[in-house]
Write a structure and sequence with these properties.
Elements: H1 2-7, E1 16-22, E2 24-25, E3 37-38, H2 45-59, E4 67-75, H3 83-96, E5 98-109, H4 113-116, H5 119-124, E6 129-135, H6 139-144, H7 151-163, E7 169-175, H8 182-193, E8 199-204, H9 212-215, H10 223-238, E9 243-246, E10 249-251, H11 258-264, E11 268-272, E12 277-281, E13 286-291, H12 295-301, E14 308-313, H13 316-327, E15 334-335, H14 336-343, H15 351-359, E16 363-365, E17 369-372, H16 374-378, H17 380-385
Parallel strand pairs: 1-4, 1-11, 2-3, 4-5, 5-6, 6-7, 7-8
Antiparallel strand pairs: 8-10, 9-10, 12-13, 13-14, 15-17, 16-17
Helix pairs in contact: 2-3, 8-10
C-alpha cells in the first residue's frame, strides 16, 4: 500500500454524500441484483434505526469536518418503513453530521396503496425528493418483469407525488422489456411525461449475474431495437424542457439529481446499512468500505467493527478507471481539473487512452475537457475497457 500512497495527492477533497440502505422489499424482482430481501413479517424498524445510527457513529472519525451535500435512502423498498422511522433517522443524522441548509434528501418509493398513502407524511419528515420505481405503466409488461404493482398503481403513484407536496420527484422507467416494441416504449414515456415529472430516469433492462432472469432469461428485444427506443426517447424529450445530462437521466434545469451527479462526478459517499458501500478520499488515498449484506447479521453486529464486510485502499489505476466508469456516462463535458481533483492524479496518466478513443470517435478531448460522443454513448462498454487497469 505504500507505493499507492505516494501516487495520490488530494488538495481539495470531493463533495460528500450520505447513502442509507434499507434492505427489505415486498418481493424480490427477478432482474434485481441489489441487496434486497423479501419480507416475511413487519420490518424491524426500531432495531434497524439503532443499527444505522450506531453504524454512523463509528464512521464519523473518517469524515470529521466535512459537510454532507445530499442524502439518498435506497433499497430494497425504503417506503415500506413508517414516516416515524424516517423522522427519527433524519434527526439522528442531522445531530451527527453537518448538512447543507438546502440539502437534497431522496427516498426511493414503489407504487402501491400503502406506500402512496404515506407520501405526505414522508414530506413532513424533511424528505424533499421522491424517486418512484414505476418501471412501466403497462400491466402486462409489469407482470413480465415480476413487479408487484400494476399499471393503475403506477398511475396513482405518479399523480400522488406532486399532490403530497413534492416539487422534486423522479419517475423510474425501463425499456427493452420482454415483448416490448418501440410503440409500447413511447407510450410509457408519454404517459410518464403527462405527469410533468421534474426528473425522469430511463434505462434499459439488462440481465445481471446471480438473478432469476440470469438463470431463466426472458426473450428481450435485440440491441438494435433497444437503441431505437433510446433514440426515440431522446427525440421525445429533446423537444421539451428536459436536459439529457446523463445517459439514462433527464431533468428540468433545476432538478438534476445532486446525489447521483456526485456519484457520476466521482465524489465521495458514506454508506450506512446492510450491504452499503462507502468511498472516502483522504489526503493521499481512497478507501472503499462495504458493510455486511445479510440484514440479520448486520443487525447483530452493527454496534462493532464486525459490521464491516470488507475494506480496501484503492490502487491509483483502479481510481482512474472508476472515475471514467462514472464520468463518461455524463453527456456534458468533464473539465480536466475535475479528474485531477477527484482522482488525486494528473490527466497525463490517461492521456494515451483519451487520444486513442478520440481517434475512434468515442470521445472528444481538447486538453480542457472530455466529452463522450454519441457513438461513445452507444458503445460505452467498449470505451470504458480502454481504461481498465492492466
Amino acid at each position: 500500500m505504500g507505493n499507492e500512497k505516494n501516487e495520490l495527492a488530494f488538495y481539495n477533497l470531493p463533495p460528500l454524500s450520505l447513502y442509507v440502505h434499507i434492505p427489505w422489499c415486498e418481493k424480490k424482482c427477478p432482474y434485481c441484483d441489489f441487496n434486497s430481501h423479501a419480507l416475511t413479517d413487519e420490518p424491524p424498524e426500531r432495531q434497524y434505526l439503532d443499527a444505522l445510527l450506531a453504524d454512523l457513529d463509528q464512521e464519523l472519525p473518517g469524515v470529521w469536518g466535512r459537510r454532507v451535500h445530499s442524502i439518498f435512502i435506497g433499497g430494497g423498498t425504503p417506503s415500506l418503513m413508517s414516516p416515524e422511522f424516517f423522522q427519527s433517522l433524519l434527526s439522528g443524522i442531522r445531530a451527527r453530521l453537518s448538512c447543507l441548509p438546502d440539502i437534497e434528501i431522496t427516498l426511493e418509493a414503489n407504487p402501491g396503496s400503502s406506500e402512496v398513502d404515506k407520501f405526505k407524511a414522508f414530506k413532513d419528515t424533511g424528505i424533499n425528493r421522491l424517486s418512484i420505481g414505476v418501471q412501466s405503466f403497462n400491466s402486462r409488461l409489469l407482470r413480465a418483469i415480476g413487479r408487484v404493482h400494476d399499471g393503475e398503481a403506477a398511475l396513482q403513484a405518479a399523480a400522488a407525488a406532486p399532490t403530497a407536496g413534492f416539487e422534486n420527484f423522479n419517475l423510474d422507467l425501463m425499456y427493452g422489456l420482454p415483448n416490448q416494441d418501440q410503440k409500447l416504449a413511447v407510450q410509457d414515456l408519454r404517459t410518464a411525461l403527462s405527469f410533468d415529472p421534474p426528473h425522469l430516469s430511463y434505462y434499459q433492462l439488462t440481465i445481471e449475474p446471480n438473478t432469476f432472469f440470469c438463470k431463466y432469461p426472458p426473450q428481450l428485444p435485440d440491441e438494435d431495437e433497444c437503441w431505437q427506443m433510446q433514440l426515440k426517447a431522446e427525440a421525445t424529450l429533446g423537444d421539451g424542457e428536459y436536459r439529457h445530462y446523463e445517459i439514462s437521466a433527464y431533468a428540468k434545469e433545476k432538478n438534476v439529481c445532486k446525489h447521483n451527479l456526485n456519484y457520476w462526478r466521482f465524489g465521495d459517499y458514506l454508506g450506512i446499512g446492510a450491504g452499503a458501500h462507502s468511498k472516502i478520499s483522504m489526503s493521499d488515498r481512497v478507501i472503499r468500505t462495504w458493510k455486511l449484506k445479510n440484514p440479520s447479521e448486520y443487525l447483530s453486529k452493527a454496534h462493532g467493527k464486525e459490521r464491516i464486510g470488507g475494506r480496501k485502499s484503492v490502487p491509483a489505476e483502479e481510481i482512474r478507471f472508476e472515475f471514467m466508469l462514472n464520468a463518461l456516462r455524463l453527456t456534458e463535458p468533464i473539465p480536466i481539473p475535475l479528474f485531477q481533483q477527484h482522482t488525486g492524479q494528473s490527466i497525463a496518466s490517461v492521456k494515451t487512452q483519451l487520444e486513442k478513443a478520440q481517434e475512434d470517435d468515442l470521445l472528444e478531448f481538447d486538453g480542457k475537457s472530455i466529452a463522450t460522443t454519441h457513438r461513445g454513448q452507444r458503445f460505452l462498454n467498449e470505451l470504458l475497457q480502454r481504461f481498465l487497469p492492466n
